[in-house]
Amino acid sequence: LIDDGMPGAAVRLLVRLLPRSYVVPWLCQCATTTAPLAEEEREGVRLAEAWSRDRSETHRRAALAHAAARHYVGVGALVAATAGWSEGFLLDADGKEVAPVATHLMAVVAGAALLTLAAAGDDFEAGCRALVDAGVPLLRSEES
What's the start-to-end Cα distance of the chain, in Å? Predict the structure, then answer.
């Protein structure tokens, strides 16, 4: 896809193909190693990392609150939303559960975070290629 001029599609497809349990930790790694982040962005990544280490509802809700407070804008908010939407329920403005999180939401917001990271560099295509190259080894082989 990258070689055919569709680098964004390559990133989005990879996120959908990765085992769900790998997406948030890998995304956090990409966010912390791809480019320097502002403190507010790092906070969203830290919240997602906390959820990755301890997948409690408290950590998930903290990540969601961070993302919502930033209106889902920026790498940190998108990474936090990825953790928050990886399982559990969607929450209303009062924090009440309203519906189970649709399984595709995590991949959509993770893809958005990765594309935002790639776009922050000087060369979007090269950024996408680097992200894909980093993620492909995480795919399950046909033998597993």
Answer: 25
* Per-residue pLDDT tens over the stretch 63-93: 999 999 999 999 999 999 999 999 888 878 7
**Which positions ≥6 away from 85 have C-beta within 8 Å?**
64, 101, 105, 106, 109
Q: List residues bridging with 97 in a β-sheet.
A: 91
Torsion sign (Cα): 107, 81, 48, 29: positive
pLDDT tens track for 91-114: 787 878 888 888 899 999 999 999
Cα 74 from Cα 70, distance rounded (Å): 8
Instruction: Tell me what pLDDT residue 100 has.
Output: 86
* Helix intervals (H) in 54-123: 57-69, 75-84, 103-120
